[in-house]
Amino acid sequence: MPFLTINDISLHYRHVLPEAEAKKTPILLLAGMASDSASWQPVIGSLSKNHELVIPDNRCSGRTTPALVSTNREIMVSDTLSLLNSLNIEKFSILGHSMGGMLGWEIAARVPGRVEHLIAAAALPSAIQARVSLFESLSALRLEHSEAEWFKLLYQFLFHPKFFDNTAGVNDAVAASMQYPYKQGAEAFAEQVKGLMSFLAMPDITAITCDITMITGSHDILTTPSMMNQYAADIPKTTTHVIEDAAHALHWEQTEKFVECVLSALER
Questions:
Q1: How far apart are CA 142 and CA 184, in angstroms?
Q2: How far apart are CA 206 and CA 145, in angstroms?
Q3: Per-block average pLDDT, block size 10, for the chain (268 residues)?
Q4: What are phi and psi of 97, to 5 degrees?
Q5: Is domain 3-267 in CATH 3.40.50.1820, yes or no?
Q6: What is the dihedral of CA 205, 31, 143, 169, to 10 degrees?
Q7: pTM value?
Q8: In a 3-state reduction of DSSP, which class is residue 39?
């Protein structure tokens, strides 16, 4: 797996070339809080049939080192654009989930001439204080409880209620999270939560020139459909989609519908 030394980190990323010879616009995939490039695994096969994919591990996640480093929106924009520049990618589309989606909004506003389409999955243009407070509490609780119990709590904010009907499935998911070799540590999670404060400021929406697609799950309690629609109503060239029977981790729970929505947006 390739790495790029930039700013104060060694940035790990996946660079997936398309299966087809006639490739379309590359897609930058940006993961959310407590996630890394592996979080996109369910959709990589479908998206890479015709698109080049660039999938970084954000600061404080995955195989990017140091594992514990200061992070905020400004430096993450710099990391990401430096990565694209190193790959000689001028034009690209963005698919960002949660915090990665908020980062996508900022990049689309910062370099509007380079972004062809922004797809914000479970992501508003900026953070809201209530969600920052929630993650601050989750960070504090991680230091006080067993990791297994903490992951079960985190899942309450990520998955559809039906996920919890299968106790064995929940336990398997917890075990997989705990055994993941690049699992984010409690201190690194806390640093990402601190960095989330920098996303409270609204990007310069008026600078964005590309089409925008906002997607969320019908049961997402972090980015609810009503929240998404409220923001989208004030932003030109924005299309919204609600994926049924999905919560915040919509690309895991309804992968086929999610990919269909993404590819349809990119074809417009």
A1: 12
A2: 44
A3: 93 93 88 97 96 97 97 98 98 98 98 98 98 97 91 97 96 96 96 97 96 98 98 94 98 98 94
A4: -115, 130
A5: yes
A6: 130
A7: 0.96
A8: helix
